[in-house]
Design goal:
- 2 copies of one chain form a homodimer.
- With about 525 residues, the first copy, chain A, is α/β, with parallel strands linked by helices.
- Chain A has 14 helices and 23 strands.
- A 7-stranded mixed beta sheet of chain A has the order 2-1-9-8-7-10-11, sandwiched between helices. In chain A, strands 15-17-18-13-12-19-20 form a 7-stranded mixed beta sheet, with helices on both faces.
Chain lengths: ~525, ~525
């Protein structure tokens, strides 16, 4: 496969004629060839019309057909080998080793959803038997979930594979039976095209309707707004900035038919250091914190951007160890010059706030777009009265909040806006305080973790990667893990439908061998 | 209990001082005493603050505590006896017999949700075991669902019991562990206060935090908007007009923290008469249609407002039988003078549309606010090119669309906007056409029913009372049945949480005896 600079619309490769975009190597600021043609409204129209036409036929495919499609995409991505990893590394500044891990995650997500589709649990099959002798008679009622319809997917800058063209959102939507129209992220256009070609070929090889997948290139916010406004689109998945997510939410809400938006936006992932744990393990926790802070140059939505602890000697020890570790951390290339610029502006703004001091920074940057990790310190009173401090600075920046007592820690927790994660470092002797903190954190975060760091997001059944606004636009959903498929489904109930017309998941004899809810009981029958 | 004209804010009864409202007997246009004091912003603030304060304590109650609370409300409603039925009948014009059935539904909804809470299936308990030897190690991950937070409930005009103060939305939210702030519907203020007193007393008797329930009286749209805008409110449930629902959706989307709105709005519940069934049972179907059309004076969100059939002798026979039945139908009192007025305006507007003829009407009205059922006829070409015809006229009005062929029937189906229900009258010989219609109807409706009429909405596990916009604001949810509780929940994942802090639903040994998803398998362990 080769990068051509074209969009992929159904089974066609289409050169956009509304301008040119180029990929840039953030480590050198050099332009990477070839250039990419920018699409326009007609391309959106074409992709969305194909998606709409594909809709009924694609959602009528069997579980096995969709599972094999997802697995073929996974295989195709692996087969791209160094071509993909090399290009992604050039476009994002992320090291090859990190991208290989991310590719593994991407592939395992696709395979997990293949398994989810085969299992069929996501269908939510529910049957209530007819009660003909009851007064009034109860009809036969059977429910399963069906695909919402075509989904617009906006990839993330920071995961060029795992949250991009064939990333978690795409895999979940395709698994659900929804065609997807993906807008390529400008920061990794070549990577996007390579992966897009894999999906396009897999769709053809599996004889799927061509509209099941399109990949568009657009260079402006209005392009994305037009995609979200298209009547064929029935849901939106987005990972990115709060500003970008809010704009798509507004557009979706203003449609004549409003549609759900799943936007994973920004948060600061607070880490609470409970007193006993801190007194026993200040240095260990401090080192772990700096490791977590600087992972992927801090460009993770689960980056620990806030640390809350009681003032005193253990916190001094934590800060001292963290500072030592920080001083040894090399500056790392950020994803784009724009992201690097925003990071510099963010830490400058934070550093200028009255009541904030800079604990320290990592090694100075020696290359373009490389970021020095930065840790700030403040007290709870300043945090509670300064609005800006709850906002994310995307990159390796964090703020330590020193509290006078446990009540101030609880007040800081209560003051937080919605988060993807909240972490407690705690020992058995901290349980009493943890019990007070836990109900607050439950209201604030989608995932609560103990004695770890939030960076890694396991792809499994019990994962929640979502949380109250503004961490995500819809706290009822998860962007990672098996339940991510639920975002693209809606229930349909069939009342007294003849057996000959009944969807397979709901037929007598349970031919798909699903766990089903039958008259309120969970049974394999 | 007696009607005092006061609001119920927590455990207090508060006389609103922002004006006066009175209940009106729609059958006589007489005012019913006493008058009601209208609340203002300070009352909203008080109710929402109490709800927020109650939030953590209420959601920490055991399943058994919440189940008993719901059952006590059911018992209390029954104990109101003729006081409640009599007042509700005076306020709404609905016959006592219908209200007794509705009371039964209300009580059974409360009891169903008590059972749902005891079952615990709604918690979605999901466990993924730690894999400490995997590289990288997998942490222990456990997910359950928790209450979203305080819910604003707006009752419906047409179900003064089943979709009002202690109706389906309230029962589902209270079951989920959410405090509720209910805005009483102006059309049945006395009924609302009586039921509100039952909930208030049940909350006290069960030692629940007082903010778990408040009942407010407001006389303007801005009052509702202010309630939805309050930062303590985390979700909205509404049943009513499209205009009202859209206004609340806009308000919720514009909050600094947007929140979900579950608005059940308007639709026309198409009924497709497939050719063979119509040729065999035209008269029977025609009689059934008029029964369905005139039930509760047509004031049901599942009223059959559209009939689609092939032109020809069987349709002529259907129309003739329907007309005979219609002529025998007495005019029935509508819920309010305003609703009656809107009905008259709606049928006048429809009748004036070019290409529409009036098939016939029911008996003339002899009392104030009584509605004559009205059936119109048109052809598919007119329907497909006249926008207004897809909109609901609330009341006993329906439109028959004569199609030249099956393709026109399919085109009419494709032309429809979102619906709560879609019905097919069909015989075995109609299966071929039904197979073409079914995928379209799946995209258009939340419930698809065969050889019945959509009016009755069973309260069970497999029911879906919802559908694509504008039938409801959120097609992923149901307002009726066990799954209605899902609207008020969000998932939280715990990573490596110590056993001593683990929520009961997720503990080792499964003390709540739940069906849980463990490592991807559904098990009772």
């Amino acid at each position: 496969m080769m990068i051509t600079g074209k969009m992929l619309i159904g089974q066609s490769a289409v050169r956009g004629d509304k301008g040119l975009l180029s990929a840039i190597n953030p480590a050198t600021h050099e332009t990477l060839g070839p250039d990419f043609g920018v699409g326009g409204i007609a391309d959106i129209e074409q992709a969305c019309t194909l998606a709409q036409q594909a809709c009924d036929r694609y959602r009528a495919t069997t579980a096995e057909q969709r599972a094999q499609f997802l697995e073929a995409i996974a295989t195709g991505i692996l087969a791209l080998g160094v071509t993909l990893i090399g290009r992604a590394s050039l476009e994002t500044g992320l090291p090859a080793a990190r991208l290989i891990i991310e590719r593994g995650r991407t592939v395992s997500q696709l395979r997990l959803f293949a398994q989810v589709v085969r299992d069929g649990h996501y269908l939510g099959a529910t049957l209530d038997s007819a009660l003909p002798t009851r007064l009034p008679a109860r009809p036969d009622l059977r429910l399963h979930k069906i695909a919402l319809g075509p989904v617009a997917v906006f990839g993330a800058s920071n995961f060029p594979l795992a949250f991009s063209v064939a990333g978690g959102d795409s895999a979940a939507a395709l698994a659900a039976g929804c065609p997807i129209v993906v807008k390529a992220h400008e920061a990794h256009l070549g990577t996007s095209e390579l992966v897009g070609q894999v999906i396009q070929q897999a769709a053809a090889a599996h004889n799927l309707p061509e509209g099941v997948f399109s990949l568009l290139i657009g260079d402006s916010h209005p392009f994305g707004q037009s995609l979200v406004s298209h009547p064929a689109i029935k849901a939106v998945a987005f990972t990115g900035s709060r500003q970008g997510g809010l704009a798509l939410m507004r557009t979706a809400a203003q449609r004549s038919e409003p549609i759900p938006v799943y936007a994973e936006m920004s948060c600061i992932n607070p880490v609470f250091l409970l007193p006993h744990a801190l007194s026993m393990r200040a240095s260990e926790i401090g080192r772990g914190f700096v490791e977590a802070l600087t992972m992927s140059a801090g460009q993770l939505c689960t980056n620990p951007g806030l640390v809350i602890a009681l003032e005193g000697q253990p916190l001094t020890q934590f800060c001292s160890t963290a500072l030592d570790a920080l001083h040894k951390k090399a500056a790392a290339t950020m994803l784009t010059p724009g992201i690097h610029h925003a990071y510099l502006a963010g830490i400058e703004e934070t550093g200028n706030i009255s009541g904030i001091t800079t604990l320290g920074q990592g090694c100075p940057a020696e290359k373009p777009s490389a970021a020095q990790a930065t840790v700030f310190v403040t007290d709870a009173a300043t945090f509670l009265t300064t609005g800006r401090l709850g906002d994310e600075t995307f990159g390796p920046s964090s703020l330590i909040v020193a509290c006078k007592n446990a009540d101030e820690m609880l007040a800081v927790a209560e003051h937080l806006s919605g988060q993807l994660t909240a972490t407690m470092q705690l020992d058995d002797a901290d349980h009493s305080l943890a019990r007070k903190l836990l109900p607050i954190l439950e209201r604030k975060a989608g995932r609560i973790l103990v004695n770890g760091y939030p960076n890694n997001v396991e792809v499994s059944h019990a994962m929640v990667h979502g949380g109250p606004f503004p961490a995500s636009s819809d706290s009822r959903s998860s962007a990672v893990g098996a339940s991510a498929i639920d975002r693209f489904l809606r229930p349909v109930c069939y009342q007294d439908l003849p057996a000959a017309l009944m969807p397979e998941a709901l037929q007598e004899g349970n031919p798909l061998e699903l766990w089903r809810m039958v008259n309120g009981q969970c049974v394999l029958a």
